[in-house]
Amino acid sequence: MGRIPVAFQLFSVRGECERNLPATLNAVRDIGYVGVEPWGYGGDALEWMGHPASEIRRMLDDNGLACCGMHLATGALIGDNLARTMEMNQVLGNRFLIIAWDQPRMSARRTILELAGILNSAAEALKPHGLWTGYHAHGFDFAVVEGEIAWDTLFSNTHADVIMQLDIGNCAGGGGDPIGTLRKFPNRARSVHLKDYGGPEGSVIGEGKADWPEVFRLCEETQNTEWYVVEEGGPDGMGFDVSARSFAALQAMGKC
Length: 256
Prior knowledge:
With 256 residues, this protein is α/β, with parallel strands linked by helices. The protein has one domain: Divalent-metal-dependent TIM barrel enzymes (TIM Barrel, Alpha-Beta Barrel), CATH 3.20.20.150. It contains ten helices and 13 strands. It has a five-stranded parallel β-sheet. Helix 5 runs parallel beside helix 6. The longest helix has 18 residues. It is globular, with a radius of gyration of 17 Å. It starts with 5 loop residues before the first strand and ends with a helix. The relative contact order is 0.15. The mean pLDDT is 97.
């Protein structure tokens, strides 16, 4: 397969986005990232960060950036919000509609299955439009709930085309096994968040404990991964030093 493109989760520079979104996108482009993933969309309007969808699309096009995904509130996939969420992402040219987190539902088996039902229903509605939905990992998703890891319960009860957006650092930080999780659920990780763990303060990809050669091998040989998404940034989402060092580390690994 060809090289998997490397994108950037804009939450990592959220303070910069709030201060000046066009300048932030320009800086991300200048670092070398080819895509971005916005965060915090609720499905209640056709805008983000105060900018209409069409204006954001122009910003992306002007910088040669793709929208590789969008992090959503669970409610963005429910009821009347789903149609707006679809329209918003179609304008942006994004196919991956990812629930960012849902700790309340991931705390009990009954509500994990409720979340699985929301994802399955959304996946069926989105499929005719060439769109996909999924769920992004946080540490709490790897707690044992009623005898089973919550993440495993969710992805054992969702359709095969529901995206498993594993976050390497979040998974390990919550006591999970990112390598084992990728092996257990092949062909589910269309988008993977790259974040290291266990390194010194301020460390980036390759400076922690993650087994990156094996992560990349699994993504490239056993998954259908279409995007690597870096999620590493400075305090309060300000500055681009960490983002640039993360990209440089991936360049040194031959990934971009």
